[in-house]
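Let's inspect one such protein example.
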Amino acid sequence: MSSDMTRRVFLGTVGATAVAASTGQAVAADADTPKSGSLKILGIACSPRPGKTTAAALSVALEAAKAAGPNVETELVELAGMNIPVFDPAAPDSADFEKVAAKLTDPKVAGILVGTPVYFSGMSSLCKAFLDHCMALRKKDFALRNKVAGVVAVGGVRNGGQELAIASVQAALFCQEMILVGDSRPTGHSGATLLNTSDDISADEFGLSTARNLGRRVAEVALALRGPA
């Protein structure tokens, strides 16, 4: 009996020590992340056409994100018109990408929504170039680590490759140690999938609901990770 009690005390002590150690590591790892005040959700529109359906879909998602809590701020960044060329490891610098990177790595930014039009069941070339340039952020101690991410895809037909485009963007974001989420309930799939009809998404109620659900989910998880204000 005495031996059994000693064993229980020992295991309890070890368990408590392990929990304390892991908690300390988590605090240390996130020491540079603000734990109170407002947070920001960024939307990155990777369409070469400014102000079109990708930007509109992200705006819907960001509006839902902002409604998730009084401390949530949002910002839409359109890459259209920026000089973000095909990534060349021999000449990786891009002044326009550096401007975007400064926004992405702002400690206040807790969530990022990446939006792309669907071209041949994949992301746009601008989106690919942007994600490839994000390689520089991996080299900066994984600067996007633990930021929440969601993906929006807009296609010309209902089953036009939106989910394939989302998966390809997600694969790149996983490599940044980001926390990826889908569009959550009640639609609850891999991300926001919208239909573009003659440069208009307003009639696609289902697609709009996925954008709202995704924006809300990104904000909810970001708020939960940030902790109480």
